[in-house]
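Researcher: I'd like a structural prediction for the single chain below. Treat it as a standalone chain; there are no partners to consider.
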Amino acid sequence: MAGFFLGLVVWLWLRTLRLRVVDTSGARNKADPRPWVLAFFHGTQVPLLAWKRRRTTAVLVSLSRDGDLQSGVMRRARMHVVRGSTSRGGARGLAAIVRALRGGELDAAFAVDGPKGPHGVVQPGALACAKLTGGLIVPMGSAARPTHVLARTWDHFALPWPFARAIVVIGEPLSSDATPAEVARAIEEANARAHAELDPARESSATTGE
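Model: Treating it as a single chain, here is the predicted structure.
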């Protein structure tokens, strides 16, 4: 019940965001029947939930009590929830997502830096999923303002205020042969693009050295 009501609150919260999507994935890739493995860093995911995905997306949610709450949020966001983690049942969870992607028209989403970090370091789950399903890695980034950053959390979780401006950037897909460093760089570029789109004046000043 707690997960259901939290999911309802988050769903209403997301609907207040003034969202703009910058999609550089390309029309050809959007029409590609191969699954997308959406890849992003922990802490940036709230605006990503507001993005209208191209099709139902599978997510791996931990077996913890926090995961029980997260499941309610993900289901309210119309995600296909698979329970598991890298520490408890992780292999089974990944296998379940792979089976789901092979069995129907689904994509998948991964916070690629694992459940506990290090932040920005790509773990093997998303790349393994892409290889096993013949999918594409699609880097994503976001930015929002005003935002409250939970500074004491390891991922500096960014929580946009209601009615905040938000930017979601969908990067150019990478093949399943991409290296972790290439995936990390593509996500970093997507996040940088999101911040630049949110505040182009600041980006211009940084470029000119003002």
